[in-house]
Amino acid sequence: MSSPKHSGSSHHSRPSTPMGSPHRSFSSAMMEDNITSAESIINKWNVDSPSVSYTKVTSLFYQDDDRSEALRFISAIKNLQRSMLFFISDRSSPDSHSLIVTAQKLMESAMKRLQKEFHQILSVNRDRLDPESVSARSSLTSLSSLDDPRSDFEDDIGGSDDEIRPGGHSMTESPVPIQAESDLRSIAECMISAGYAKECTKIYRILRRSIVDESLYRLGIERLTASQVHKMDWDLLEIRVRSWIPASKTALRTLFRAERVLCDRVFADAPKLVRESCFAAVSGEPATRMFSFAESVATSKFKKSPEKMFRFLDMYESISDHWEDIQSTFSYESSSAVRSHATSALLKLAEAIRSSLSELESAIQKDTSKSTVPGGGFHPLTRYVMNYLAFLADYSGSLGDILADYPIQVRAPLPESVLHSATSSPTNGYDENLSMRVAWIILVLLCKLDGKAEMYKNVALSYVFLANNLNYGSVWKHRLKSRFWNKAAF
After folding, report:
1. DSSP secondary-structure letter at 415?
2. Residue 488: which of 429, 415, 439 has the closest Cα?
3. What gap in Å lies between CA 242 and CA 40, rounded to an integer?
4. N or C terminus of the chain: which is more exposed, having fewer CB within 10 Å?
5. Treating both helix axes as pointing N-terminal to C-terminal, what angle do 380-392 and 459-484 enclose, rounded to 10 degrees?
6. Which pTM value belongs to this model?
């Protein structure tokens, strides 16, 4: 006989719910209603339906201003997904299998519609990154003269960073309008949560990649292998380089940055790995290709040509000036190859610049011109070297960085006057290296001029020659003081 306590407990215990309980039937009925409701709107926008032709040319998201139809469609898909999960986990209903099959067919139809909408929205807004809106391209006119060693690589136009910019576009702005961006995000979130991430990201990658490739091509960044670059003569290669310099600035400041912003926003609700892989697929190879060109130029047969060094410096600054953009835009681990190529390009360009400087010193020492200047006037070599150094002053910041860890190596100590003047200013380490390098080049020039003075048969005229050229060098030396450093460096 049961105790009263046990008996009472048994009396108040809740009996198990039978399989055919009203509660379970109500849940099942709700899930069936979800499928029925979803079927209505999904079939309305079925892209394969022969009886509904207007949906093939009409956008679900542009059907009305408040996006009410699109919101109903997205909501129906989410309810449909819940119903599928319900009937998969609960096979008590005799119609579970048929309902799952129906729901799956509806889901496939809905995903086809969303794929079409996703592609259409991306396509309609591709003009926001159309490089035809880019203006003020630098002139490609080539000049040359002995007095201006940089003239064959000096832009006719100033070449400022503001000369090239896609219209209506800031660096942190997404390349599509806000509403379209919101629509893309809604579609991406819906497709990915429904298990169609592969289909969604494939559309995004293909379309956005084609836009980036086209943009780079129109900006002037072509697909060139290292072998092709190394076989080019300078006139042809310089055209590519002159085009690459402003194009790379635009790409780093605007194009790639905008793609990163768009990717992060469209896939904001997706796992981070999805955002990373999409951005890498869209921008990774194009950016790597852009930096690879700089690497190829830096390792070309012109890497030891003093006259070509200014183009190397321009390319170096195009990358170094946008280093923060590179690090922030390509911060994903999947974009590490881009950062590696950017670093490699900087290092190789720096090496080419140092080689060109060494070649300049060698060229001065090896100058074999025997003719004397009438009247003991300015020697062309004096003009060339001093003008060359004057143009180098425009790159003093970059040169200081490039020469920071490479102090000048000379066989004998510099003369006390040169050594004192080159180190008299309170400069930091890399300024001192740059100061010493310029002072050394001037000393090499002076020694060469002393030898050329001996070619005059008239001793008095030889002294006139030395006086004129030393005075010319002295005037330029004082000009270089303020251009290279704020205080005297010589």
Report:
1. P
2. 439
3. 59
4. N
5. 10
6. 0.75
pLDDT tens across 341-386, in order?
A: 999 999 999 999 999 998 998 888 888 888 887 877 778 888 888 8
- Find tokens 């310089």 and name the residue: 238
Query: What tokens were used for 456?
Result: 């005059």
193-197, 297-301, 375-379: least confidently modelled range:
375-379
Q: How far from chain centre, in Å, is Cα 106?
A: 42
First to last CA, the chain: 115
CA distance 74 to 57: 19
What tens digit of pLDDT does each residue of 396-444 get? 889 989 988 877 766 555 555 554 444 444 444 446 778 788 888 888 8
343 φ, ψ (degrees, to nearest 5): -65, -45
- Cβ neighbors of 349 (< 8 A, separation 6 or more) are 294, 297, 298, 312, 315, 316, 319
Nearest-10 crossing angle of helices 178-193, 197-219:
140
> CB-based contacts of 442: which residues, under 8 Å, 6+ apart?
385, 389, 418, 473, 477, 490
Angle at 154 between CA 150 and CA 439, to 5 degrees: 35
